[in-house]
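**User:** My hope is that you can spare some time for a protein that puzzles me. As I understand it, each token names a local backbone shape. I would be glad if you read both lines and explained how they fit together. The protein I mean follows directly.
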Amino acid sequence: MTQLTPFHIAVQVRDIAEARRFYREIIGCTEGRSDTDWVDFNLFGHQFVCHLNPNLGPQGKISSHFNPVDGHGVPVPHCGVVLEMQAWQTLSERLKQHHVHFVIEPHIRFRGAPGEQATLFLLDPSGNALEFKSFKDIPGQLFAI
């Protein structure tokens, strides 16, 4: 597997201050550049940008479709990061300590199969779906068939 370059993804949020609190305090991201209507975060080495959408309103949420995968309703669309197992376990514990509501609780999916992975899903306060996953052998399992 070659070295990957960082991805860039931008999502809509209903409140910039709320997004800052969630991504900095709950997820543990560091903040980069920002303005009144957007903020960059370092999401495990990737550029994750929250853009204010005032049309969402203070209680507004982005909605997801839920697709059945391995007996769970996976929110679509979603984005996230594949982490080393120790980083995934640390994040999972951090999220539990912050009493985050999981869409799909941290667990091992596809146990014993080539794509066996640790995974968890959650929504940010604006309803953006996030997945964090890990494999015992990322290069060997990430695209396994």
About this structure: The chain has a mean pLDDT of 95. The two ends are 16 Å apart (CA to CA). The first strand starts at residue 8 and ends at 13. Strands lie at 8-13, 30-35, 38-43, 46-52, 65-69, 72-76, 79-83, 102-109, 117-123, 129-134.
